[in-house]
Amino acid sequence: MIRRCLLVLVAIGLVLGWGTPASAHAGGLVATDARSRVVSLTPPVPGLSVTAVEGGAKLRLVNGTGVAVTAAGTTVAPGDSLTWAEPLSSPAGRRAAGDWSLTVDAGGTPVTVRGVFDWTAPPPFLPWWALTLLLAVAVPLLCRRVHRADLVLAGIGLGAMAASLAHVIGSSLAVTSAPFAGTFVNATGINLLAWPLIAGGFVAVVRGKPAGLLAVCAGAALTAVFVLPDVTAFHRSVLPFAGPAVLERLLVVVALGGGAGAAVAGAAVLRTLAARQEAA
């Protein structure tokens, strides 16, 4: 019965989150091994600037000239700006170094925008996978050896939730071309179900209600499912995250390893609690 309830709650979360992005990274950004930047505008036009944002996935043009500027098929009036997704400057999917260029029109004058990709070697990925697996295995083993396994497990679920929340916040802050609030909500995905399950379940466990542990474990399982696509952070050097790359990888380790470990340990802990209640 316990396993069936867990499966039902996880299935509901997957159905609710089916239409969300496959990655927890906000704004559709992906992990790569390079950043793109603009190096020159030829000829230089006073007041006109073009910069790469979000690692080069988008370009931002600021028209401080006295003439209209046309870029990406859009006319930008003097004093206005334009941000657009530019495949030429995006390092996503590229496997070789190289430059890029495109042309904008400043009042009838063609201006060539040139950029480069700054490549960085990917990190060793095996240690991060090992940490994740170690955490996932350690959680059930720990819960077998402590007296208040329900409280410990609820705390681990809360830790996985906190890591997932920080992961989504950092990913949302990396998107500079859209308001944070909307980006954050769109990136939350099935966490709209997972986070309340874990938080509410934790409170219930603290109050001595065993049923709360079921909610914690279901939410932890959903957390692991949600963050699983972002294991690309273990294999790429440039991450769409507003913070150190090592922090992002640690958050993925905790959310995935802790969430999976809590989900696996949940059934055994719930059986133990049920056996104690029957014995009492």
Automatic annotation (TrEMBL):
Keyword line: Membrane, Signal, Transmembrane, Transmembrane helix
Signal peptide segment: 1-26
Segments crossing the lipid bilayer: 126-144, 151-174, 180-204, 211-229, 249-270
Highest rank taxon of the organism: Bacteria
The protein's name: Uncharacterized protein
Protein species of origin: Paractinoplanes durhamensis
